[in-house]
Design brief:
The protein is α+β, with helices and mostly antiparallel strands and 435 residues long. Helices cover 33% and strands 39% of the residues. The longest helix is centred in the first third of the chain and has 26 residues, at 2-27.
Length: 435
Amino acid sequence: MMPEILASGWWAYLAEPFSWQSALSRELDPAIVDGWLAGEVRERIQKMTSDSGSPLGEEWLLRRAVWAAAWKGREHTPEAAASWHEYLGSMIPGAFEVAAPPEIGEAWRIADRGSAQERPDGGLQTARARWNEARTNVAATLQPLAGVDADEARLRQLVALVTTDDSGVGSLRRLYLRDDPFEERRRAMLRGLQPADQWGFIAGIDYHDPRRRAGATAPSEWHELFAGVDWQPMAGAGWGLEYRRIEQRVWNDTRLRVDTRIALDDDWIVRGHAAPALDGEHIARLKTGGGVSRRLGDSWFATLNYEWTKFSDLDAHRFAPGLAWRWHPRSTIEAGIDLVHSVPRSGDREWTPIGSVTADWKFSEDFVARLHVELGDRSRANPVRELVGTDQDFGLGFDLRVPVASRWFLVPSWSYERHERFELHTFGLGVVYGR
């Protein structure tokens, strides 16, 4: 009974403004009514999201971004207003086609069932309080339409409602998960709303602690210092630049990495990178490659990456097909198989398969946790030469992205690798701004 009550009540709460539109449009300019409808539905979605944890608020922002990009430069046309009306209605099943006073009244009657006899429930009580507030405050709801001059206002109200920045869009802009095709697509949709180019900064340290097994030897510990910037213009390709210094007891090497990425449309993302060694012999002389992502549906992305790693006496070619599934509004699961082809200057060539699964969970728009598991010898492409060919067979990693201030985040991380002769623990801490 309770799921039916909640579903009917929230549907009536969101769909009710649509049932008034026809009558209001006979008295007022339809464009003004569309503008009012956009604001009223937005406010109700925000309240529902706050009360119930529904992801509909995020969906509203995405649809608004798509609409703004599609009608950029033509926002003041009746066709744009009609399009936005359809965008709103498509979010609420049946609201655009059948929302009328009788249907709304029936939904409210279902929502009121058993209200006097049911046991107290915090979530349902909160929802009913919200519904009753809307039902008893119709005059205040319609107040924004009083005294509107259609000759002056026209579509201005609509345009302001769907193109003005707010905290929700700001939170989405700050969302950054490297190489996540869903986030790249989200940034592409929001780009039409960005007032300026977007950029971010990251710096941190990774400490690697090999712990040898009984009767075996292990490499010495080492650490990596890194700093980078990320820039996304309003149009065109985004760019990233990272400097990394790798230090062990008796040597230190440095590398510079350049990344680029571009969303060709809503379905295709292309990226590339190059990371030459600036000095040193213990890291790869060059790592370069690229990849593509292709949207297969609203919740699926396929990826294909290639990377060439060149040491002084070994080349490694990595082919990496993968699949990403946005199974929940707060989570994405990615699975892939890396095929590493090792080509030494002397000795036998070898193919090594590596399976991996990565899952993330967003506790909020800014607080993200990620888990990574892999099986196979990932160390063949590791930046430290001593690890190549040490027969890693298992890896596990975990990291958090924790907001600490406006546009500032801490990224603590830990990973574990089991090798034939030792176990490798890596502890990391990064500071991120603006991503």
